[in-house]
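Revision sheet: structure tokens.
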Amino acid sequence: MSVDPVCASWLRFSGSVDRLSVDDRRALISRGAESSAGVAADTARIVADVRARGDSALLDLARRFDMTDLDALEVPRSMMTRALDETSPPLRRAMERAARNIATVHSTFMPTVVEVESEPGIFVGRRPDPLHRVGVYAPGGRASYPSSVLMGAVPARVAGVKEIIVCSPPDHSGRPSAVVLAAAALAGVDRVFAVGGAGAIAAMALGTQVIPRVDRIVGPGNAYVAAAKLQLASEVGIDSPAGPSELLIIADESVDPEHVALEMVAQAEHDPRACVVALITGEALAGDIERALASAVNAAARRAVVARALAGQGAVLHVDTIESAVDFANEYAPEHLLLAIRSPEVMLSRVRNAGTVFLGISSSVAFGDYMTGANHVLPTGGSARAYSGLSPLDFVRWTTYQRVDESAARRIANDVSAFACAELLPGHAAAAARWSGER
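Predicted:
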């Protein structure tokens, strides 16, 4: 199919952002609100089966969904090492560079012990303790994502996690793809299992005969993976809710329309449900970008996927000011926000809700996906209003401690007793009063 050079059915939203109908604005903003009852029900059955039968259920799921009979769920370490050794030199260099940058960036994000004296003699502290074991999910199937392994495992290693496991779907060989295994070896992953989908999430959350139970699960996945995480969130820590890839671009007249179009296509090619929006200062420039986008879609290698994404969730909208565009972006809360404007640093202080922000058109989102060292595991569906991207904070838990010396205990005892009496807790009052000298 070819697309028209000016917005038609191939682009869902066009025109002025101020002229969107209430329903259209809601559809654009509330993209993460709908869930599939069918996906949730299917996922619940898979989780229940893994809970009941463990490894046997996982082997059956591999036959059903991956069309493979597994001789074992765990991948031998020697296979991981061999996969890394056999990786082409250019790809290995790229992966090593990405891993170094991820480690460098995430090391600076590491939390430290903090302690404060709230009043003389009363000390309260907070200490970050690495989790014991975490699970990283690496998608498979139609494509392989070694970058997702690095984005999950390297920060966990930086944080001091004792054991890191990876689950990834098997291919026709009965093992995860060679590039996933290579990335696991490079990142220092301890164990890899050829398990995918909701079954993998259930196995890591609950534990099976072979797969150990983890403290937290991170990593992107399809709708079933996301549903399994949410259904098991009371039993295991999870990262932010994840859905299809998202990009919101704010652009002014300083930008080349072709650059904007290429960025939109790059994110739209992830998934037919990807959400790609451009807010443009000026109606004429918006028209230029629509025409550039039409050409870029026609030339795209994954053209069918890109066209479906743009027809379903794509938008090129013009705005009066950059400030109003940023206000819209804060309401939209995108996974990726690209400020393709003259002075992006000036507008950065106004941004409140975004998974990650790219400053300037040369800061391509593709660079962040692979090489800058920032994490690409990010909140989607508007959840950036409350969630942040993956970091070492996801791989520690905090131990709070407090110390009250005797002189401080005497000073606060009566006030504590007053609170306790007001709440009808005489035992608390008595415990405090022993330090007051008024027993």
